[in-house]
Amino acid sequence: MFCIQNKMRKTKSVYKPIVPAVEQASQVLLCLGDGGKFEKKLTQICAEVGIHKSKAYTILNTLSKYGFVQKDTYLKTYSLGPGLIMLSRYLLDNLKYMKVVSPLLESLARETNATAFFGALSGESVYVVDKHEGNQNIGFTLQIGHRFHFTLGSHGKCIVAFMPLERRKILLERKKLYFYGDPAAVDLERLQCELNDCRHKGYSVDTGEVTPGVNNVSAPVFGPTEKIIGCIVLIGTFSGPAIEEYGRKTAYTGREISYRLGANLKNIYGNGNQK
Q1: Is this structure's pTM higher than 0.70?
Q2: Which domains does the chain have, with CATH numbers?
Q3: Exposed, middle or buried by CB within 10 Å (0-12, 13-18, 19+), for 226?
Q4: What are phi and psi of 151, to 5 degrees?
Q5: Residue 18, class by beta-carbon neighbours within 10 Å (0-12 exposed, 13-18 middle, 19+ buried)?
Q6: C-alpha 203: how far from its chain's center?
Q7: Among 60, 78, 108, 224, which is least packed, fewest CB within 10 Å?
Q8: pLDDT tens digits for 204-241?
């Protein structure tokens, strides 16, 4: 009798109210968000989490279905997905980077009388997570949560300009790129010049090619690991000399936000384009 009771006590003591599959899925998400490489291959995830390939593949596919994980079919890597942004929409206002971004974004919009927004980069999409509007008579309908393709227009140019060289080469081999709206309009020689110009000046430009009559300038925003996490985009009907002036202001805003988030601007821009 004593032995039976003892066994029962042991069984009770090792019981954990945890679902193994959910625990493993949580470990996979934590692995993808551990602050190291943003994108990881299946073998790396398996090694870090300690699970078999088949199990990891099934978990990643399930998480991808709900947008919590995104797969890069070209590089065969996995990263955190945009579904996490939607899930965390009530938390966004309390995030550190939002407290940094919002006042600087508001200041940019006020100085230029244009619409300024911060787009968070997630996978191959840019999500509008904060915006401020200036006093222009022409307004732009732009909702929080709106999604753009990450190669679209000026923000696409500034994101790709600061990509690692190897990844940029692979990306530019794609047939569908939206830097000028219509993929058929892409001129790679011209694009390379614009990307080089963006790396030098710190901002990129779209003069009504995506949306006729609407111009915009964009600048990258970097996080503490010096990886691009999003971009500042300024939209309006400004033209001529104002494009360059507003481009410099937007670039300054992007660098200031990056600096406050802990990015090393010297490592990113070198000595010629810092705060």
Answers
A1: no
A2: 2-81 (1.10.10.10), 88-269 (3.30.450.40)
A3: middle
A4: -100, 5
A5: exposed
A6: 17
A7: 224
A8: 999 999 999 899 999 999 988 888 999 999 999 888 89
